Amino acid sequence: MATADSLRAARVQLVRQQPEVLLTDIQLPDGNGLQLVHDLEAPAQTEVVAITGHASVDSVVEALRLGATDYLVKPVDIERLRAILKRQPEAAELRHEIGELRGELRKAGRFGALLGGSPAMQSLYDKLARVAPTSATVLLIGESGTGKELAARTIHDLSRRRKLPFLAVNCGAISPQLIESELFGHEKGSFTGADRQHVGFFERANGGTLLLDEVTEMPLELQVKLLRVLETGSFVRVGTTQPISTDVRMVAATNRLPEKAVAEGRFREDLYHRLNVFPVHLPPLRERGNDIEMLAQYFLDELNRQEGTHKTFSPQAIAKLYERSWSGNVRELKNYVQRAFILSDDVVEAAESTETQPEEGPSDVISIRIGTPLDEVERRVTMATLERCGQVKRKTAEVLGISLKTLYNRLEVYSMKDQARDGGDVRRQAGKDRPTDNSTSPPKH
């Protein structure tokens, strides 16, 4: 082990040896300690951990972008430092494994849990291979059905945390009243119905990777608490004030454009920048060329294996695959193949589409007064789209660019608000109809 108190002294040490771990303070007497990343002979073979006394969203993001694979805040959390050092012995084995995978993916057309050999997927694989061994936060951006959870699982499986838990939570599928408890846990008796202690996702994923899917659907008040966890590495269970340390690799995912969600006031800009350390865009199926046929054959092979059959695609069925837009992407393709498989004998023909296309007409446009609250705008657009799609919720979710679970969650919230409003109206009307003390006798003069 070697130490240095300045950039100049550290550079002398780097000439003498290539460290496995480089712990560097961001503020050194003669400059930024992260400049040392450029002096490493083989940067990929060294884990760079930035240390700062004044952590902020900007400083942490900048540190990770400059080459740090993790960061520590003064005073240094010894347990977190030990966890970083404990992962280091696997680094060489991991780099070798990723190198082999990157060579094989160009032959087999698959990488981790992902399938496809198109240029768009090759580019995606390269990004995942580069970011997986680090501790950088990753933001996965892609349409519904493009494989964001598979990409997150691949990042975990190719990281030094792969032997520890990988957990995924859909922020749009949990009601706003319960999501804080699900993420951070709660103590017994902390609220009505809390009859036992509950351990949240952050605590269960300690040491591993946590995927926050549909992160832009998280309530704004909870986004503040998530930002605090990302900055401090600790959280508090509902019903207590005792902080709990956590060492979790964060991967977030969204099927929205995050910049648009920020502009609409649905997503905090500071949280967006904190999560957007390493953005990864997943290509839609329509941009993946021959991957459509490769994936369809893969799904057919899986069905043949499960059912003990030997069905094959007809040439017409293959041709039909390239005529569709696949708005539901790989998930839609999988369902399509299964439907065609069920309807066919030995040769699989094209299946009929089950999509309900909304008709065009004057009602495709709604007018909204300037100054209408965003919640009301969202409600009106959602309900108008649902009506235009003939109350078909799956198609409505696709048109709105959200998951089916998010749509159900929204409709439940709207229903609860309607019930609360109707109940209030009944109570107010009852109050108006109730006679006052002076209503039974005329006024005296």
Automatic annotation (TrEMBL):
Keywords in alphabetical order: ATP-binding, Nucleotide-binding, Phosphoprotein, Transcription, Transcription regulation
Superkingdom, natural source: Bacteria
GO molecular function: ATP binding; sequence-specific DNA binding
Modified residues (4-aspartylphosphate): 25
Domain Response regulatory positions: 1-89
Bias (Basic and acidic residues) ranges: 418-436
Pfam family name, one: AAA_lid_14
Cited InterPro entries: AAA+_ATPase, AAA_lid_NorR, CheY-like_superfamily, Homeodomain-like_sf, HTH_Fis, P-loop_NTPase, Sig_transdc_resp-reg_receiver, Sigma_54_int
UniProt keyword annotation of Methyltransferase present: no
GO biological process: phosphorelay signal transduction system; regulation of DNA-templated transcription
Domain (Sigma-54 factor interaction): residue spans on this chain: 114-342
Region (Disordered): 418-445
Residue ranges of coiled coil: none
Name assigned to this protein: Sigma-54-dependent Fis family transcriptional regulator
Origin organism lineage: Bacteria, Pseudomonadati, Pseudomonadota, Betaproteobacteria, Burkholderiales
